[in-house]
User: Fold these one by one.
Assistant:
Number 1:
Amino acid sequence: MLLQEAPAETFSFMAFGFIVILGTMGLYLLSLINRYRNLEQDMELLDELSAKVEPSVEST
Amino acid sequence: MEAAPRNLKILTGITIGLFVLALYMVFIYAPREAVMGDVQRVFYFHVASGWVGAVAFLVTAIAGGVYLAKRDRKWDRVAVASVEIGVVFTFINIASGSIWARPIWNTWWTWDPRLVTATIMLLLYVAYLMLRQGIDDPDRRARFGSVYGIVAFVSVPITFVSIRIFRTIHPVIIGSGDPAAEGAFDMTPRMLQAFMFSLLTFTFIYATLLWYRIRLGRLSEEVEERKMEMMSV
């Protein structure tokens, strides 16, 4: 490799490397957004449930 | 979705801007390396990812220490958020290094001290996340996480110095390395600027992700508390 005059042809490895780097970062970002949305849905559901439970507790 | 605080929005904007600039510097500003060719460009984000991993695990150890001293759960949230980000970026570091190694070392993997210590470090923190799942009591979980985070941090300096004290083929770009190292190169001023800028950008990425992940942890705890309240009614 040291004796060659032109740089090695390694474009495909570079492309693969950046697909892995940017892809992993993107997947982690999507996972954060997805988990946050799911938790917010859980929170809304809990709000609805507690609104239903409270009147029934009062009536008893 | 609950609106992000103004400062977080500003930080996100700065981080996105820096990331776009970093991509420009890596692909256009920095010259093509004379021997390795284009694959050398992976080096900028490869090292920056390793840097984020080390910083993240340091923050975990510090947050663990503060939690043990103050017993305030917010520090446990910081610790676990930081480990998660550290694991993601250490994985990126190892995976991108392996891809770089294929054309340069002619192998995807070799049992080199740096590769082995980095992988042990990654597995230690993956175990941290898995073991936490097995503890139901939040205070016990936080105590365990804090002690584990401090002890596991020993793996970080060992990983850093492994290429400086053991015989290795992994190149040392900054400082002197083993003469047997393969893939070492001299950085031109433009390469050095792209490298330093990548480090800065990834530090901002870490800070931004940490903030979002801490918010996620807080919301998760709120949901758990609400569920417990509902079950007790």
Number 2:
Amino acid sequence: MEGGFLGFLENNSIYIVLFIVLVVWLGIFLFILNTDKRLKAIEKEFGKVTSEGKEN
Amino acid sequence: MVWKLILFLLMTFVIIAGIAFPIVPQPTSWYQFPVIPGLEEKAKIIFFHVPTAWLAVIAFLMAMVYGIRYLKNKNLDEDAKSAAALQLGMVFAILATITGSIWAKFTWGAFWHWDPRETSIFILLLIYGSLFALRSVIENEDKRARLSAVYSIIAFLTVPFFIFIMPRIMVGLHPGSANDDTSGPVVDFKMNANMQMVFYLSLIAFTILYWWMWKIRYKSIIINENLSKK
């Protein structure tokens, strides 16, 4: 069974490449999504601080 | 938020189609791509290499446009947008060079041949690389923004020549060279409708990804500058 699976991977290495590229893409997407979220939080905080500074 | 989900699904489809869809001599199903003479199985690089080169040009164009806008308004936010586009342009130009070199290794036998296309991207990397050196040595932000704007305008004037003209009028190895009688122009004549659709979807997905990355980058530059002033 294991030999069959390894044989499948040996003959279809393109699927290993596909899996790796999909994992890399998921990683990049989640990283950008997370950075975007954190940036929006900083912008919000920054806007609050600026408006408080103007009031004072 | 919906467009982010669309981007994720679109890019996932492009990756699956670009890597796993088979290339056969006579396509009979929608998921089969035709053999392109001179490229064969290696034609799959088109879905990833061409969009990176396309985005490098778009990014350098945006850097020039925001450079012009800075010179008109003297607003440092425009410089931040121009700088973000320059940085991403450099990243995508390097990615285009790397993907092209990998393709060259399997097609021409070595990673680098000083082919007109390789030489032109190398010169572009040098031109835009020196802009980063220039930006890093000037401390006065107004002076830095002004010089960078002028440089990015002059630098972009060379882009159409190095990307679109020189590699097409000179004899070389890259598809689309003056002596190419096998594979170029690839997109218009050698791809079937399905392959063209995946190619254009790839261009759209990469462009949306670039736009998102550019927005994040210029916002972070502006926040960083505002924080350093306090």
